[in-house]
Amino acid sequence: MADPAVLAQLRAQLRAVETKGYRRRPALPFGIEAIDSRIADGGLRLDALHEVAAGTCDMADDCSATLFMAGIAARAWGPVLWVVQRRDLFAPGVAQVGLDHKRLIYAEAADDAELLAIMEEGLRHRGLGAVIGEARRADMTATRRLQLAAEGGRTIALLMKRAAREGADPIGMPSAAVTRWRVTSAPSSPLPVAGVGRARWRLALARQKGGEGFEIEVEASDATGRCALPSAVADRKAVAGGSANRHAA
């Protein structure tokens, strides 16, 4: 009978050949300790569904939530499928947070059902770095299908939930998503140029599997898709002897 240690070594060598020596990371970290340390997986699981919603019905919050997803996708590994129902995705805007238009595959769906079906097909393809969709309704059955399609791969699924009506909570209904986020605009960080400042977001992890929710204010994604702690917060942590981890990985 073959030595178990030898077999284990052989399996590791075969995996290295199949993946060209690269190890598949299980999660995409923000690179900010104050966030990653409070997420059960140390970051956003790549083989999972994550939901995002604007904190309010205000257009500024809608844009912030969109850019939050674009920044995450920008740091993923490959082409990005973005499925919408209305033609309002502004390529120069998402490019400002690091998501180059050359990586984008744009698809337009007639309704929520078609959008979710396209997302599921994209996740099962296994050749995409991220699949993003924007829907008003996606129940437990629909989100469970997306989660199952994502499992076993390395394509992160991001579903933006829009409010079906004024005052409704887009992420209030049950979902199979691993994490569920609300993104709200916050007053900008001041810059040397008068009247111009880096945008800030109030991130609220409303629910997550295996962990507690929390809220934190960050500077919006930069040209590489990375968020950062506001300078005042980072400076206070440095003075206190903590690790600020100002920029995301």
Which key terms come to mind for this protein?
249 residues, Rossmann fold, globular, alpha/beta, 8-stranded mixed sheet
Topology of helices and strands:
Elements: H1 4-18, E1 27-28, H2 33-36, E2 44-45, E3 49-54, H3 59-74, E4 80-84, H4 91-95, E5 104-108, H5 112-125, E6 130-135, H6 140-150, E7 156-161, E8 179-190, E9 197-208, E10 214-219, H7 231-239
Parallel strand pairs: 3-7, 3-8, 4-5, 4-6, 6-7
Antiparallel strand pairs: 1-2, 8-9, 9-10
Please provide a brief summary of the model.
This protein has 249 residues and is an alpha/beta fold. Helix content is 30%, strand content 25%.
Describe the structure.
This protein has 249 residues and is α/β, with parallel strands linked by helices. Helices cover 30% and strands 25% of the residues. It has 7 helices and 10 strands. It is globular, with a radius of gyration of 19 Å. It comes from Sphingomonas agrestis. This is Protein ImuA. InterPro entries: ImuA, P-loop_NTPase.
What overall form do the CA principal axes indicate?
globular
Largest sheet: 8 strands, mixed
Sheet with the most strands: spatial strand order: 5-4-6-7-3-8-9-10
Number of β-strand runs: 10
Q: N-to-C SSE series?
A: HEHEEHEHEHEHEEEEH
CATH architecture: 3-Layer(aba) Sandwich
Indicate the low-confidence ranges by residue numbers: none
Bin the strand percentage.
15-25%
Report the CATH C-level class: Alpha Beta
Number of domains: 1
CATH topology value: Rossmann fold
Helix content: 25-40%
Which structural class do you get from the secondary structure elements? alpha/beta
Number of helices: 7
Distance between the termini: 45 Å
Q: Average pLDDT, to the nearest integer?
A: 87
